[in-house]
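[SOLVED] Need 3D model of a four-part complex

Original post:
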Amino acid sequence: MNIGNVSEQSGLPAKTIRYYEDIGLVQPSRRENGYRDFAVQDLHKLAFLGRARSLGFSIDECRTLLSLYEDRERSSADVKAIAQSHLARVDQKIEELQALSATLRDLVVRCHGDDRPDCPIMDDLTRSDLRRREIIPLEQPSEHW
Amino acid sequence: MNIGNVSEQSGLPAKTIRYYEDIGLVQPSRRENGYRDFAVQDLHKLAFLGRARSLGFSIDECRTLLSLYEDRERSSADVKAIAQSHLARVDQKIEELQALSATLRDLVVRCHGDDRPDCPIMDDLTRSDLRRREIIPLEQPSEHW
DNA sequence: ATAGTCCTTCCACCTACTGGAAGGTCAAGG
DNA sequence: CCTTGACCTTCCAGTAGGTGGAAGGACTAT
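Solution:
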């Protein structure tokens, strides 16, 4: 199977599939002309990856999940542990964003939004006294969503 | 003021402050020895940036907010518009994550998590029929959280 | 033969920084 | 005067997970 075909069937862009090969998630064989030749198992793997990614699992988690996927002796506990810790991260992110949303909503509501320059949003951003408000920690750059 | 001092007072790492100079958010002058020399206004700007970033505004939004910050004639409507669209993005992200959380939670609950290999989580990831479930769109790489 | 589509590799770019190396500067102590 | 240590400088590379595009080979249909 050519990459275009696999791309269509898995729903993943060809670029992404090549990238996944680059980082070792799939190992398609090659034809004489240099074209990648995907087996049906590769297609399954890629669909698996697409679903796992859409559920927000990191590439590293996907790697582990793939190895469990291919392990007929795996214990469901191992799978569950990964999903659980991912779920915890998601829930924590939700909480952070909810706090953020509340703060922003409050500011937006209090801003009259007309031609005049005075603005509670600006006042908040300008105020240097950090104790006056809930401090929301800076986003960690490692958290890519 | 030296960068270490400004870093301490603004709460931003020195690296970040240099980066902000790189991308043109602040323009400290230089001493004869090559050291950056920050004015009090720069400190205010950096504190402003730190707060705006902690509220999740993008660097580009911060750039606009900074120009509004320095514009005594600005209209609060301009500020409000930026905050509102940011709030909308945050709220949409929350909704996406909540759907994700629900899906993950369901899978985790249904997985017994013992030594046996059968696992509803794996079943979900393996199933290639996409119609059977709510399809959660792939994360856009432009959304960095 | 040629046009159009597919495939290949490679390099750069995105966000918003962070880590580290190599080296210059400054203030205090011996 | 010299050294030590804390600062400061620039520059390069790496993070996650791809995406965009260029240059060029391969295949198919006319």
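Edit: Chain B has two domains: 3-69, 76-132.
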